Amino acid sequence: xxxxxxxxxxxxxxxxxxxxxxxxxxxxxxxxxxxxxxxxxxxxxxxxxxxxxxxxxxxxxxxxxxxxxxxxxxxxxxxxxxxxxxxxxxxxxxxxxxxxxxxxxxxxxxxxxxxxxxxxxxxxxxxxxxxxxxxxxxxxxxxxxxxxxxxxxxxxxxxxxxxxxxxxxxxxxxxxxxxxxxxxxxxxxxxxxxxxxxxxxxxxxxxxxxxxxxxxxxxxxxxxxxxxxxxxxxxxxxxxxxxxxxxxxxxxxxxxxxxxxxxxxxxxxxxxxxxxxxxxxxxxxxxxxxxxxxxxxxxxxxxxxxxxxxxxxxxxxxxxxxxxxxxxxxxxxxxxxxxxxxxxxxxxxxxxxxxxxxxxxxxxxxxxxxxxxxxxxxxxxxxxxxxxxxxxxxxxxxxxxxxxxxxxxxxxxxxxxxxxxxxxxxxxxxxxxxxxxxxxxxxxxxxxxxxxxxxxxxxxxxxxxxxxxxxxxxxxxxxxxxxxxxxxxxxxxxxxxxxxxxxxxxxxxxxxxxxxxxxxxxxxxxxxxxxxxxxx
Length: 536
Description:
Blueprint: E1 4-5, E2 7-10, H1 26-39, E3 43-47, H2 53-60, E4 68-74, H3 86-92, E5 98-104, H4 107-114, H5 118-134, E6 138-144, H6 146-152, H7 154-166, E7 171-176, H8 183-195, E8 203-207, H9 214-224, E9 228-231, H10 245-254, E10 262-263, H11 268-271, H12 274-285, H13 306-314, H14 341-350, H15 360-374, H16 383-393, E11 402-414, E12 420-432, E13 435-442, H17 453-461, H18 469-472, E14 476-484, E15 493-500, E16 506-513, H19 516-534
Parallel strand pairs: 1-10, 2-3, 2-9, 3-4, 4-5, 5-6, 6-7, 7-8, 8-9
Antiparallel strand pairs: 11-12, 12-13, 14-15, 15-16
């Protein structure tokens, strides 16, 4: 059976940038665009030319993409022609093959927000789209507040769509701008639009996640007949976000009824890069990836309970709805004091350690894990530290280097501007191949601000590891979490460090001590040792 074509429209660079606290640089937008193109989306909305310097700069130097690069703007204003509207002209001047224009379709917004008549608004829509088509551009009409508008005044909302359709719009995008429309409503209204004469092959869907149903709403529109889905990587977007393409894409490719019915232009090979694409965006945003994110989260295929892990050993499909590798993710069997030997053997196997059932080493490792967790460690969320612990018990942990001593100081003093500032400095001495190496580092960033004693330690430790130095040059710390596990004078500090490297790998390590610096240093040591171990 021939599959229908379903088109993916990414608006991370425009709608995603409306997220509170998010502001992409031009270089970051270019990097994201390349990643999206490699993933295989059909349209990349680059932003609103002229709205801000970054968007304008992006369109002046947009990367070459297979995907259709799209500029965003608004329909012409009342009282002037489309050809003489400077805002519309600015969008056209971006030179993109496609242009998406937003326009009102809710009578309340037309009369209250725009302050014009309903007839004037439909005229603005028609003339704007007509102008785009006359310029040889692929026109998209973004029907703002459509679902609310349809429920308030269906005939008028449909008139707006017809105005765009009859003027030659390739796509008419139904927007749930406020994010409150339920999936069933989206399905029924989308179906009503098609029955009113707007072909489903010309309809798109744009949902927001204010009720945690943006993905469901998008799929409901597809089931009703819409053939374009708009969304963002990681669900980035204003308020609660947009429809999440990192959930929509694998669902369409791997789940029935969609997989056998639709072709979305994303290859199976490209899908394996989905987790990396998700993490890349979080890296740019300096955010910690959401562990529970569907498909791409670090915990999406984690199996903690012993019963689950035992079944996974026999057949992964017992507790996994897809193969994690299909989206570039990996199965994790965390270690904790709930673990049994089935959990342990599975986790060891994933680390490349084959240990026969009944081997006395299994009991020793389990006892050590449980004893350490009583002291405040957690191996549930620090898989790399667990692997190092297990290898040590099995006699399979190389001694890459030895830390002979370290020291960290924090000084508070006045600078040349008579301002009180902090300065952290660390000294680390390691022994490699019989030779001692001393490294000193301060924790001052490019802006002259102190990044703290742990940062100084990390820089000093990674400054000179002799013949191992090249292996850790692409390593970076991406998150640092501190928790006090006991109260009062017996307080113990647990530090978990998340690290990453240039190969896209991420790993977590743990350190525990009454002293936060000692706990941090222990986690840093584990992070480096795991990296050296993995790189052979």
